[in-house]
Amino acid sequence: MSSIIIFTFSILLISPFSVSSLIDVTDDGDNENPTAYEVIQSYGFPKGILPIGVTGYELDKSTGKFKAFFNGSCSFSLEGSYDLKYKSTIGGIISKGKLKELTGVSVKVFFFWLNIVEVYTTEDELGFSVGIASAGFPIDNFEDCPQCGCGMDCNGVVEAHQGNVATKIRTNPFVSSI
Known about the structure:
Layout: H1 2-14, H2 19-22, H3 36-42, E1 56-60, E2 65-69, E3 74-78, E4 82-95, E5 98-109, E6 112-115, E7 118-121, E8 125-129, E9 133-138, H4 165-168, E10 176-177
Antiparallel strand pairs: 1-2, 2-4, 3-4, 4-5, 5-6, 5-7, 7-8, 8-9, 9-10
């Protein structure tokens, strides 16, 4: 019996999918098990690109493959203008300031649901691409995480701890082609 345990343990230690290869440790070394929100922030993204409720994540630092997990699908509206859907698993390839080959996140544009395939940052803007078009928004719009079902305005009242988000969210009415 003990040889089976030792064999299993040794497989875990040399496996390319071992926990140490899937978790990104922050530079200061203080946090050995960072949250998904901390991981995306270490790549230059604001935590608010993920809604509240991430139950876990995987990160392969050698390839940048990233997955985040929720208990189920998540949808919400922001400012009554944008309807967003997150599947129970989202993923992509993350690097400093860029999340490409994104899967599991879509936005409603007019009557159609389009997959967001890339998210990128500039100095003060966060850009979202659906492939044929992209739109940019002030990065400070994403300081707080939205909540599944109600976005930033839950129970009809903006949460006091998040500040006056309803007046803070600004949009760029122009969509630019890639």
